[in-house]
Amino acid sequence: MSTDSAPVRGEGAAESPVFGPVVCAALRIEARAVRRGLSRTPVVVVGYRARDAARLPGACAALVTVGFGGALDGRLRPGDVLVADEIRGPGGTAVPCAAPRLLAGELIRDGLSAQVGPLVTTDHVVRGAERAVLAAQGARVADMESAIVAARARGLPVAGVRVVVDGPGHPLWHPGIVGRGLAARRVLARVGPALERWSVLLVRAAEDAGGDAGGGAAG
């Protein structure tokens, strides 16, 4: 098995706990890029449309879905980063994301262009008029994996980070996609440090909340 899925080796990998967040990427190219900026966080390749989501560990501190996405409105340009405040799936389901503005702030701190908004997962590449329909519903970016990963979180903190590679005025199937893809990969390679700082802040906030609750009970 490739090192891209090293955190979940073996048939029983889904039952193995991970003490910390886990980053999920659909494609190996995404996994290799995001891993460049990570010092301690495992990356799991879940496959196209998250067909290999069973590779995810049975327990972890948080699930973070990371990769490329398609913008649904003109406010996001190729190379921009969307931090999801919720991940929408089929049938109108939506999973809220943990501290999205905190994560976006950490990305901006590292010089990246980051915005916050809803991420929608579809079972196909979104094109043309469908972009406008989804944008009218408030979604900012589309992908094909995040809602499937988020559904497996079972109450764990979830985050979604997507680097824009196409959008209105920037079609996916166009010669310019090669340059945009390379640029997006460079951006993706820079998101790791912010993700790890965010996860530390998230854990500290949870510990502080637990301590406050415990102190109140004791008093």
Automatic annotation (TrEMBL):
The Nucleoside phosphorylase domain covers: 59-167
Pfam families referenced in this protein's UniProt entry, alphabetically: PNP_UDP_1
Q: What is this protein called?
A: Nucleoside phosphorylase domain-containing protein
Organism this protein belongs to: Actinomadura monticuli
What are the leading ranks of the lineage? Answer: Bacteria, Bacillati, Actinomycetota, Actinomycetes, Streptosporangiales
